[in-house]
Amino acid sequence: MIIDKVIGEGFGNSSIIFQINKKTIMLYAIETSGITKQFDDITAVNKVSISVKPGELFGLLGPNGAGKTTLINMLSTMTDPSGGSAAVWGFDVVKNADMVRQSIGVVFQDTTLDDRLTGRENLDLHGRLYGLDGKTRKKRIEEVLSLVELTDRADALVKTYSGGMMRRLEIARGLMHHPHVLFLDEPTLGLDPQTRIHIWEYIKTLNKEEGVTIMLTTHYMEEADHLCDRIAIIDHGEIVALDSPEAMKNSLGGDVITLELEKPGDIAGLCSAYQKNGCANIVSQKNNEVFITVRDGERQIPHVLALASNAGIPIISVSLRKPTLDDVFLHHTGKAIRDKEAGEVERVGYIIRSRRK
Ligand SMILES: Nc1ncnc2c1ncn2[C@@H]1O[C@H](COP(=O)(O)OP(=O)(O)OP(=O)(O)O)[C@@H](O)[C@H]1O
Ligand SMILES: [Mg+2]
Fold this sequence. Notes:
Elements: E1 5-7, E2 17-20, E3 23-26, E4 30-39, E5 42-48, E6 51-52, E7 57-61, H1 68-75, E8 83-88, E9 91-92, H2 97-103, E10 104-107, H3 119-129, H4 134-147, H5 163-175, E11 181-185, H6 193-209, E12 213-218, H7 221-227, E13 230-235, E14 238-243, H8 245-250, E15 255-261, H9 267-277, E16 282-286, E17 289-294, H10 297-310, E18 315-321, H11 325-333, H12 341-356
Parallel strand pairs: 7-12, 7-13, 10-11, 11-12
Antiparallel strand pairs: 1-2, 2-3, 4-5, 4-6, 4-8, 8-9, 13-14, 15-17, 15-18, 16-17
Magnesium ion binds at residues 68-69, 109, 185-186.
């Protein structure tokens, strides 16, 4: 392979954009190398290295405070890294921040719409900030409004919009200047399940039909699972697992049997009985439940229950299911991501309500 010309910044040994036989090829739309962000004594992002291919839909999945927004903020040039480096669409996020900004669209976690303006006016303002001329703005506003199905409500004040409509308008705004890469920070946080599924469709369309590279953050496992080609699970600023959702779930090695124990004090004894016996691939625990991963779950249940009975440990209930990303998270971090979800919905509901006052 003969490389004619290297274009774009790149770093380390991987040049990001180059030409072969006059064809421009980009290896990575986003590439970070040991990127780190320190806030006094908090390491919000700790030596993260990831590579996202052009056209990929890549997810950062993690609980509150994991460092997802901080990572997006560094990649979108909102804040400088304390260490390491990153390139987006071939441009270094520190040395070439202006070029990065031209190449990306961002939908922030907390809404940044002006609710005293109409939807159309918000889009127009954004187009002006990006230097789009009047004719181009007009055309593009119609396109993005139609994409998120807001044409009918375009001239209503944003303060009369529902939470889902605001989120759709923000996605439309992020697309006004035809970005190559779109960052979506918690695109469906606090929205009801039906609206969430609706927004997933727009995200998929953008990615598959318009070819936009997307990096989204979420702490909804279903969202990451449904949308993303690959996911990085992030906890305490570090990547704990990175793969496709399917490969991650398969890595647990089978079906998950959940056993609810009568006495939480019995958990350690039961886990060690299963591990010693070698009947389970992975054993984890939460409150008074033990999760074990086994091949051929239906057939293994009697054996698993017999072992508990032999160890003199009473079981209240037993269930069998396919592994979820929560099991993957539990396996890697020892805790569940789900615990946080209910409170978060309320928090965002509050943000949207308080903006309306
Ligand atoms: N400007 C800041 N100053 C000090 N600490 C900060 C700042 N921004 C973030 N942090 C801290 O960095 C850590 C990561 O925060 P971040 O907002 O990136 O997490 P997150 O994964 O986006 O969480 P959430 O799911 O709640 O949005 C947290 O401990 C947070 O308190
Ligand atoms: Mg966040």
